[in-house]
């Protein structure tokens, strides 16, 4: 009987370690930029965004909108600035779209 109990305990410990490792992989795979959706929330690049909500970022200079029911995040970025002679482009301060690059002359 002790042998059966020891074997059952070992199986339970191994199952817990296996499922625990799977959960850690989900967390680490989300850090690499992949999109996860769950119960009306988008988990994208380390941020939790409620369905239908928009976040404006400064780094990267982008706007993200969660569409969890469609399993999507829409990303808006800056337009590339047109060259104007020898004037260099530079990024500005603030959240999207204020941080989009402009021409400095």
UniProtKB/TrEMBL annotation:
GO cellular component: extracellular region
All residue ranges annotated as the Single domain in the record: 42-105
Pfam families: SVWC
Entries under InterPro entries matching the protein: SVWC_dom
UniProt-recorded name of the protein: Putative 8.9 kDa protein
Record flagged with keyword Signal: yes
Highest taxon of source: Eukaryota
Protein localization: Secreted
Signal peptide positions on this chain: 1-20
Record's keyword terms, sorted: Secreted, Signal
């Amino acid at each position: 009987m002790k042998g059966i109990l020891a074997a059952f305990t070992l199986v339970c410990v191994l199952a817990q370690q296996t499922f625990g490792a799977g959960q850690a992989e989900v967390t680490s795979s989300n850090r690499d930029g992949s999109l996860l959706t769950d119960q009306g929330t988008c988990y994208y690049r380390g941020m939790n965004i409620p369905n239908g909500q928009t976040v404006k970022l400064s780094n990267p200079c982008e706007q993200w909108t969660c569409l969890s029911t469609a399993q999507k995040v829409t990303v808006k970025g800056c337009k590339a600035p047109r060259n104007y002679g020898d004037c260099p482009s530079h990024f500005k301060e603030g959240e999207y779209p204020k941080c989009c690059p402009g021409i400095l002359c």
